[in-house]
Design a protein that fits this description.
This protein has about 525 residues and is α/β, with parallel strands linked by helices. It has 2 domains: about 10-300, HUPs (Rossmann fold), CATH 3.40.50; about 350-500, Isoleucyl-tRNA Synthetase, Domain 1. Helix content is about 45%, strand content about 15%. α13 runs antiparallel to α17. It is elongated. 5'-O-[(L-methionyl)-sulphamoyl]adenosine binds near residues 16 and 305.
Length: about 525
């Protein structure tokens, strides 16, 4: 495996189906990626953050038919919806890829051709129970005793059709070895064990095509126009397309399959939900092995958001709309809630009460600190800390918070990083209460102590802005504008910046109270 370079980082989210609206599940994966992207950029890294839409296949074809529009019309509309949503929610992606782009289609064809040339594709008859109504195969188990499709209850037919298969089984041992030799490759460990468990059974070959007669909305196979590429194969390859490794316009030996140097490939981190682990940790790496390409460096499979105790689903009508929450509380509060509430890798539950509790944490701890500190510096120091004052009072707490934030971010435990930053804000509020700057201000001869106390608090506030920038970019910018800065400093700068350079004004409430 090639070694990651500290300064370059390629992060991806799944590409979301262009058949449905963005919901908090999509938003969570995307916020997680965004927070990591912002954190690494802030540390001076060269980051490439990819997201996009998955636009081929049965789901899209069906949804377009249901709406009575052409599939491409649906995809154009939905790609725009996602881009707008990510704009409203502060997502700093570098590229939004759509699988209907000509560039991607060409890379998919080059990739599949490559597998064919290397002898990993063969065709065979596929036989199974097919529902014309649902336009899909069902397993014997799904059909139940009546042999009717479990969705609409219609009859099914036994059909045979030609499919192209990828020799996935040839890579079973290599994949197991890769997972065993790279214990951190799949995070968290629970998911790694799940994949290893799955690999204890013989791996079958993967059907990578659908007959065009049955599914027209896909990328034709380069060696058989009557078949289109299975949507998951098409979709996974987006990560490679966007990396720039493959240039299908070039002759085969120059396409990048033998040398990814100079491109973003391999990805440093694929962020996904646990529901799409097999496709990312089994299909994708074996496909890459088949093409002779390096594997992604890491996969993070996060947990599932439920609503109260219930699974979120369209049919139950309980899908949480991140845009509605954003309209009411602002995007940073939504980002804070989702990233703070869900331990990376675990499931978590959304309820309006939990959301409010987390919002109040922002208002009462961070918002309160910012109001108090800025108003006291404005009032007692005229907005300026004298240049000879150091402000060391909270140094230990700052060191602890810094250590914890860095360790947590590097180990992908974003929620723990946020908790550590909030702990610093709590400590700073505690310091206000024990030091009582207002009584120091009333006493003669306490001027130096007062300036020291306020300087310590100001340093903490500045640092908190830097530490929380990856989750709340808008609010942290607002916060530092009350300190006379136009940009949130990096974590490094926030530690060093001479405090006397700040021009502090009383900050308006960062997180206004919510009525009812
Ligand atoms: N198009 C595929 C992915 C292809 S990637 C090469 C797909 N799309 S999706 O629109 O269904 O979105 C998948 C992402 O949304 C996953 O990361 C999934 O975990 C996330 N979520 C969807 N519902 C979710 C929850 N209720 N909770 C958390 N995340 C969930 O799959």
């Amino acid at each position: 495996m090639s070694q990651p370079t500290a300064s370059r980082r390629y992060l991806t989210t799944p590409i979301y189906y262009a058949s449905g609206e963005p919901h908090i599940g999509h938003a969570y994966t995307t916020f997680l990626a965004d927070a990591l992207a912002r954190y690494h950029r802030q540390a001076g890294g060269d980051v490439f953050f990819l997201t996009g839409t998955d636009e081929h296949g049965q789901k899209i074809q069906e949804e377009a038919r249901r709406r009575g529009i052409a599939p491409m019309e649906l995809c154009d509309a939905m790609a725009e919806r996602f881009q707008e949503a990510w704009g409203d929610l502060g997502i700093s992606y570098d590229r939004f890829i759509r699988t209907t782009e000509p560039e991607h289609q060409a890379v998919v064809q080059a990739f599949v051709q490559r597998l064919m040339d290397r002898g990993y594709i063969y065709d065979a008859e596929y036989e199974g129970w097919y529902s014309v109504h649902e336009e899909r195969f069902f397993t014997e188990k799904e059909l139940g005793p009546n042999r009717t499709d479990p969705i609409a209850g219609r009859p099914v037919e036994r059909i045979r059709e030609k499919n192209y298969f990828f020799r996935m089984s040839a890579f079973q041992d290599d994949l197991i070895q890769h997972i065993q030799e790279n214990p951190e490759w799949i995070f968290p460990e629970k998911r790694r064990n799940e994949v290893l468990g799955f690999l204890q059974n013989p791996l079958s070959d993967l059907s990578i095509s659908r007959p065009r007669s049955r599914l027209a909305w896909g990328i034709p196979l380069p060696f058989d126009e009557e078949h289109v590429t299975y949507v998951w194969v098409d979709a996974l390859i987006n990560y490679l397309t966007a990396s720039g490794a493959i240039d299908p316009g070039k002759p085969p030996e120059q396409q990048g399959f033998d040398d990814v140097e100079g491109s973003w490939w391999p990805a440093d981190l694929h962020l996904i939900g646990k529901d799409i682990l097999t496709t990312h940790a089994v299909y994708w790496p074996t496909l890459l092995m088949g093409a002779g390409l390096p594997l992604p460096r890491r996969i993070l499979a996060h947990g599932w958001w439920v609503v109260g105790e219930t699974k979120m689903s369209k049919s139950l009508g309980n899908v949480v709309d991140p845009l509605a929450l954003q309209g009411e509380f602002g995007s940073d509060a939504v980002r804070w809630f989702l990233l703070r509430e869900m331990p990376t890798g675990e499931d978590a539950s959304y309820t309006p009460e939990r959301f409010l509790t987390r919002y109040e944490e922002l208002a009462n701890v961070l918002g309160n600190l910012s109001s108090r500190v800025t108003s006291m510096v404005a009032r007692y120091q005229n907005g300026r800390i004298p240049s000879e004052v150091n402000g060391r009072g909270l140094e230990n707490q700052i060191t602890t918070a810094l250590d914890q934030v860095h360790t947590s971010m590097h180990s992908l435990r974003v929620n723990e990083a946020l908790a550590a930053a909030m702990e610093l804000a709590r400590a700073a509020n505690g310091y206000v209460e024990t030091e009582e700057p207002w009584s120091l201000a009333r006493q003669d001869g306490k001027e130096d102590e007062l300036a020291e106390t306020l300087a310590s608090l100001l340093r903490s506030l500045l640092l908190l802005a830097a530490l929380l920038l990856p989750v709340m970019p808008g609010k942290m910018k607002e916060l530092v504008s009350s300190l006379g800065l136009s940009q949130v400093p990096t974590i490094e700068e926030a530690q060093r910046l001479p405090l006397h350079q700040l021009a502090v004004e009383k900050a308006p409430p960062l997180f206004p109270r919510i009525e009812d």
